[in-house]
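Appendix C reproduces, verbatim, an entry submitted by the partner laboratory led by Prof. M.T., so that reviewers can inspect both the input and the predicted structure.
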Amino acid sequence: MSIMQDYEESRKIIGEEKYNAIEKYLEEICPKSNYDKYNKELNNLIDFTTDEWLKKKAELEQKYKIIFLSDVLYKKEEWEKFEKWYENQNKETKKGKKSKER
């Protein structure tokens, strides 16, 4: 199964709305500017062995607090953080709807 097929299967399992919320979550916890800085530095890592490059890549991910879709889908700790965020988002949305109805 390709990674894209795997992501589509995940979308089916967790549902369209919740899956789409992951993107909003990622944007909130790791702004695009962090990804841009991370990618810029990552692209400069050219004269390293594979092991050194992987180590530097991991350091950059920590430095810029990079979280990927795959982290949320496949790492229990990251999924739990997303679940908590998602629940809070739903509570805020419901509060907003109730106050508008009044």
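Residues 25 and 85 are 7 Å apart (CA to CA). Additional entries are available on request from the coordinating office.
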